[in-house]
Amino acid sequence: MKLAIMQPYFLPYIGYWQMIKAVDKYVIYDDVNFIKGGWMNRNRMLLGGSEFLFNLQLKGASPNKLIRDVEVDQNQSKFLKTATQAYTKTPYFDKVMPLLEKVCRYEKSNLGRFLGNSLIEISKYLGLSTEFIYSSDIDKDNRLRAQAKVLHICKLMGATEYYNAIGGQELYSKKDFASAGIELKFLKTLPVEYSQFKNEFVPWLSILDVLMFNDPQQANVMLDKYELI
């Protein structure tokens, strides 16, 4: 069984979704500390031909809190207005904007569940069959840290393969995973390009940009553009 364990991000870039599609089960790591200035509550969209940093409004966010203990502001109208301004003339605006509004109006203010729900809803739109699990719902030893905790979760989930982003090569040891009977693989996203109006292509934007310019079938072709190391 292929497993990935990742902190939830807000409308993350395509490489994050490649990981989701590549595995059987995806653990949303919501009982670790919130990272201020990271990608949990922000990302980049195309606005006026250039990249623009957008934010999910939060309440009382702090690196001293777990992701699941941070609250999402129930009013995301500023972000939705900016997204409308940026993408109103894109080919799939009429299909993606209602999805985005649904995601932003999720009734639970728990950041972990809010972001988890956005991953689930967008995965449904893309036709992905990956099973999602919240780490806070797993009965585990929370005294463990870093690789030891990830390996612990892998064993509890019955994983035979563990997938991580290419940036995790310095954090995880293939030898240690192999000793536990688990094959560790790193996913490297290959260059992806598509038409963004008539502008010069701006890479590595939020999945929002991908979906506004491409239908689910086209997006899935891009989701398969990676290599395992």
In short:
With 229 residues, this protein is of the alpha/beta class. It has eight helices and ten strands.
Report on the architecture of this protein.
This protein has helices at residues 14-22, 77-87, 93-104, 111-126, 146-157, 174-179, 207-213, 216-223, and strands at residues 2-6, 25-28, 42-47, 50-55, 58-59, 71-72, 131-134, 161-165, 183-189, 226-228. The protein has 229 residues and is of the alpha/beta class. The protein has one domain. The strands form three sheets. It has a six-stranded mixed beta sheet, sandwiched between helices. Strands 3-4 form a two-stranded antiparallel sheet. Strand 1, helix 1 (14-22) and strand 2 (25-28) form a beta-alpha-beta unit. Helix 2 (77-87) runs antiparallel to helix 3 (93-104) and helix 3 runs antiparallel to helix 7 (207-213). 32% of the residues are buried.
Topology (elements, then pairings):
Blueprint: E1 2-6, H1 14-22, E2 25-28, E3 42-47, E4 50-55, E5 58-59, E6 71-72, H2 77-87, H3 93-104, H4 111-126, E7 131-134, H5 146-157, E8 161-165, H6 174-179, E9 183-189, H7 207-213, H8 216-223, E10 226-228
Helix pairs in contact: 2-3, 3-7
Number of strand segments:
10
| Count, helices | 8
Q: Give helix and strand order, one letter per element, not per position.
A: EHEEEEEHHHEHEHEHHE
Helix content: 25-40%
Q: What characteristic shape results from the CA principal axes?
A: globular
Largest pleated sheet: 6 strands, mixed
Distance between the ends = 18 Å
The number of distinct structural domains comes to: 1
**Binned strand content:** 15-25%
